[in-house]
Amino acid sequence: MPAYSGIWIGAIGGLLLFGLELIVSHRFGVAGGAAFPEMVPIPAGPFIMGSDDGPADERPAHRVDLPAFSIDRTPVTNAEFAAFLNAMGPVNSKKERLFDFDDNDARIHERGDKWIADIGFENHPVVEASWFGARDYCAWAGKRLPTEAEWEKAARGTDGRKYPWGNSPPDKTKARFHAAYNQTAPVDSFAKGASPYGLLDLAGNAWEWVSSAYLPYPYNNADGREDLKPGPVRGTRGGGHDSPPAELTTTQRGRNLSRNFRSGHHNIGFRCAR
Question: What span, in angstroms and rounded, lies between the C-alpha atoms of 175 and 240?
Fold first, then answer.
């Protein structure tokens, strides 16, 4: 074998490794040593928000026109949120509690001087993150929380579908629901439950915080609901692992006290937008 063959093989190996790094960076995005979920672009344009057939807070169905945005393909996981806690801690400089770390339902715990996701739950959606924690995580990652309108468009697209995957009822191949208390599933478990844009876990597994205050429809981003400072009640969307099928629709609205000292919950997580 020629003497230069080892150099040649090493060069090929280096190129392959470089290509793999490009793929990983494209799939997740890497910043400050932490990997972030792939983001999916959502095109500008109108969609129908709400429903005339659902609960009163979903009414009326109305047209909302949004600019283009991007949103995480999957919810933030326990492993990803643990990296944030290691960088920022569980309480911010305003003394806002970011994570209910002493709640038995948490799947991230401090071990030594590190926050570590529980074994087997690394790729599950983070729960027990407060609205402040969701907001601060997204800012740390160079993103933000989606508005309620952005979340709904990402879930239902422009055809007014009832569920992210279409109009057929939920089943266990599409979403995690009617499960035991605190029994989430990995965020990439339900490919059949993908939204029109390819997002996963928009129905079940964990409710998701949005930036918007919980206010009546029609949605209007200039009426104060997108003011991030005041207002104790913020919206949640999508249903959780212990939800009934009725809570998995693309129009279902949840709400929670964002300014409660312990505003994290066993079935609320989030994803980020930009």
Answer: 9
The reply to whether omega before 41 is within 30° of 0 (cis) is: no
Going along the chain from its start, the domains and CATH numbers come out as 74-269 (3.90.1580.10)
Q: What is the pLDDT of residues 140-187, one digit of tens each?
A: 999 999 999 999 999 999 999 999 999 999 999 999 999 999 999 999
What is the model's pTM?
0.87
Helices assigned H by DSSP within the chain: 5-28, 78-88, 131-140, 148-156
Residue-wise pLDDT tens digits, 104-134 = 999 999 999 999 999 999 999 999 999 999 9
Residue 273 · residue 187 · CB < 8 Å: no
Contact between residue 202 and residue 250 where contact means Cβ atoms under 8 Å apart: yes
Least reliable range by pLDDT among 3-12, 31-40, 42-51, 197-206: 3-12
Question: 39 Cβ partners below 8 Å, 6+ apart?
Answer: 29, 70, 71, 72, 73, 274
Instruction: Report the distance separating Cα 154 and Cα 144, nearest Å.
Output: 15
Q: Which amino acid is at 143?
A: K
